[in-house]
Amino acid sequence: MTEEKQEIKKILVTGASGFIGSNLVLRLVEEGYSVRTFGRSGTPAKRLRDLPIEHVSGDVTNVESITSAVEGCDVVFHLAGLVSYKKRDVHRQYGVNVVGTRNVMEAAFKAEVKRVIHTSSVAAMGIPKEGEIGNEELMYNLGGLGLNYCDSKYAAEQEVKLLVKRGLPVIILAPGITFGEGDKHPHHHAIFTALAKGALIGVPKGGVTFSDINDVVDAHIKAMTMGRPGERYCLTSVNLTYKQAAEVFAKVQKVRPPLFEIPGPFLLGLSSFAETVLPLFGMESPVSRQAAWLAQHKIFFSNEKAVAELDFKPTPFEDTIRRVAPYYLYPKSKR
Predict the structure, then answer these.
(1) CB-CB contact of 298 with 278 (8 Å)
(2) Which is nearest to 19 in space by CA: 77, 61, 70, 79?
(3) Whether pLDDT at 332 is above 70
(4) What is the pTM of this model?
(5) Selecting from 3.30.1300.10, 3.40.50.720, 3.40.50.300, 3.40.190.10, what CATH number does the domain 3-183+209-239+300-315 have?
(6) H or E element, residue 171
(7) pLDDT by residue (tens digit) across 237-250?
(8) Mind spelling out the 3-state secondary structure of 179-239?
(9) 240 and which of 203, 244, 275, 290 could share a cystine (Cβ 3.0–4.6 Å)?
(10) What are residue 8's phi and psi, to 5 degrees?
(11) Count of CB atoms situated within 10 Å of the CB of 225
């Protein structure tokens, strides 16, 4: 262990029960760090219960509980957040993503934590101009469009920046759509299954930044000792249209790729209809109008800054799909 690592005696991870958080904790323990997890459950996530970690129960919206959890920690990873594009989640989302971030940053500042790594998202960065690849300097341009998740993640970053101005050493990491072991997102599992069966005949015309969970976790580990406080880093493993991504999957799995790109107006109309009508029958819409709108755009971001300053090493998308497809496709009993 390097001298810098030896100085890190205790690490707090909020949101440790989540996809990125649980994978991060596994790696931290594997590398010999002393880890404290923080979450609403009284026990650690199932994946983490056999690990030699300390768990503290609490909610990031509660100042007292997060203040107590931060005490004695040298590094804080803040991953707790609510990912949702549903209107019904707006108020809870603001509480968790914005107020919760404010509370964590304030607690870390008072405890004189050596470094904080705030996990944000490319959703907080906006949409680059058509045909361009954005970077960390892009000005947020999604305000007023009713995109509650994007707005909440952007607002959370503003809370972080307020504490940076007061001297808190924070690094912001922004992954894209992340694939990997431990992912419980039902849409990701459904998409992999539909692709494997050749049942997904059409995809949205847009595209997005994809991230491999291993790349994301590596960046978090390196951010403890690398990178510049106050800076944001895009963790882009690859930029692909949804059609290109599906074609890579089809190539790896030797199945038929989607036949066409779905016209934007049709997808928006379908999502609006589903959000309005399905709840009347006690069913939940599989896609929100917000997500459908975003899916029409090519939301691509450069990883050059992360490569240069965090030694970020993106995994080829074909390698990611080949590795993670069994996780998404096989029943739990066979994993």
Answers:
(1) no
(2) 79
(3) no
(4) 0.93
(5) 3.40.50.720
(6) strand 170-175
(7) 999 999 999 999 99
(8) ECCCCCCHHHHHHHHHHHHCCCCEEECCEEEEEEHHHHHHHHHHCCCCCCCCCEEEECCEE
(9) 244
(10) -90, 100
(11) 15
